[in-house]
Amino acid sequence: MHKRHLERLQLIWGDDYMEDEEKLEKELYREARECLTLLSQRLGSQKFFFGDSPASLDALVFSRLAPLLKAKLPNGKLQQHLKSLQNLCNYCTSILSLYFPWDGGESCPLPPPA
């Protein structure tokens, strides 16, 4: 997967994409923050991105946001930005409680005996 990401960066920024790693890191964080902000604006006050029912976009977005929101990360810059977007935090919390009602740190509850 790492190779695929490097190829994408090279495609987007050309052959000199690795010349200044600090500049590259700042640009990636800037783009990620912008992406989170745009998602927040698009979600607005809706429960899901396309209204009251989840769609495949919700599954995709949640699969990226929940780990970013809940994981302990060595660098919390992006996590802090996400936490400042209250509607996205509420969105993740709502999906977790609706579809994963057990404690996220625990294993799945066993189904009742038949």
UniProtKB/TrEMBL annotation:
Gene Ontology biological process terms, A to Z: mitochondrion organization
GO cellular component: SAM complex
Location of the Metaxin glutathione S-transferase domain: 32-95
PANTHER family registered for this protein in UniProt: METAXIN RELATED, METAXIN-1
UniProt name for this protein: MTX1 protein
Source organism per UniProt: Dicaeum eximium
Lineage: Eukaryota, Metazoa, Chordata, Craniata, Vertebrata
